[in-house]
Amino acid sequence: MARPREFDEDEVLQAALRLFWEKGYEGTSLSDLMDATRLTKSSLYKAFGNKETLFWRVVERYQRDFLDFRHGALAEPTPRRIAERLLDGIVELHGGRVNPVGCLELNTALAGSTDSEPIRQELIRGRELFRQRLRDRFEETMAAAPLPSGMTSDDAASFVISLIQGLAVQAKGGVPPETARRVVHAALLSWPEA
Amino acid sequence: MARPREFDEDEVLQAALRLFWEKGYEGTSLSDLMDATRLTKSSLYKAFGNKETLFWRVVERYQRDFLDFRHGALAEPTPRRIAERLLDGIVELHGGRVNPVGCLELNTALAGSTDSEPIRQELIRGRELFRQRLRDRFEETMAAAPLPSGMTSDDAASFVISLIQGLAVQAKGGVPPETARRVVHAALLSWPEA
DNA sequence: AGAATTAGGGACCGATTGGTACATTATCAC
DNA sequence: GTGATAATGTACCAATCGGTCCCTAATTCT
Known about the structure:
The structure is a homodimer.
Chain A: H1 9-27, H2 30-37, H3 41-48, H4 51-66, H5 69-74, H6 79-95, H7 104-109, H8 117-141, H9 153-172, H10 177-187
The structure holds a DNA duplex.
């Protein structure tokens, strides 16, 4: 009963996703978004409210479309297989020529003006939540196969998360996926059950 | 033969360092710098040229004052001792309450608008240079004590660098130094010669 | 006491930031 | 066709961005 949309919301989100992925939240301006989506400011604000809610919509999509491999990884039956699949997924995510390099969330969560501090805190919170899920899964599966000697499930989770962040930074720096693969291999040398 | 400076250049650099460290290059504005240094824009520009050259002066200071432990680390006689001392230094750097958390260079090198892309590229270049120095030292010292089996000096260097970046990200996320220490321990489990 | 030189204060610059107001346009139900 | 409704285009907003210009203030050398 009114004028219909002239754009596909999904395509717009996808375009916005690429931008935020490349430049982070603050590095992406409204005019960048307008150019990439071919939408006017009015349409963007009518459809998504403001820049921040658009960003969260994009993050949601990012997690659904690009971070889904985490579920499969967490379902693996031993710590090493969990870590392996998680890290392999990261390498693949950052390795393709099709996606922007680095991690969308990390590119925003690291630094910026005080304006976006709440956004960063929220992203950090999400990361910590995942770390806890990973820790719990290590705890559950370490009966099936042990962790490296002297490592608690908490240590193991922190170690893997640190490596994931490190790999994301490396990817952003142009390090090729083969190198990342070798790093992953190196990291898992002491993890039992090859 | 002219009017003398009313400020201490060193103190100004130190104040600017803290700012850039916390917020990265783009996240730090001229008015932030003016507030923190208690200098007017004129004085800043007269003394340092512009924001970017001030930033590089700050980076120089950062490396001299906070990254000096890398020299000692590289001088160690075995790969494990090199890695150990490097990573311990990172943990200590990011662990203190006195300094801003995270890494000054990383906080700038990760994301931002296209304006500061050259700066990011230069920072990435510097990181790659250090990676090569580390690789060369691993190559030289692996006769004294071997690397983990199946790891080349290049792999080892990439692994350690990745972990360093990861730890910096973790620190920025509020992870306490004790956790970082445990991560370092976990990372070095497979490295011979304890 | 100048003259020369440099530091500092402050107004000003165009460009860009995220965001809003409003008029116009297109579509639906009736 | 008409009225209601919602999408779009455009002009506009204050605030901020990095940076420049010019005038004044302070110092040393002659």
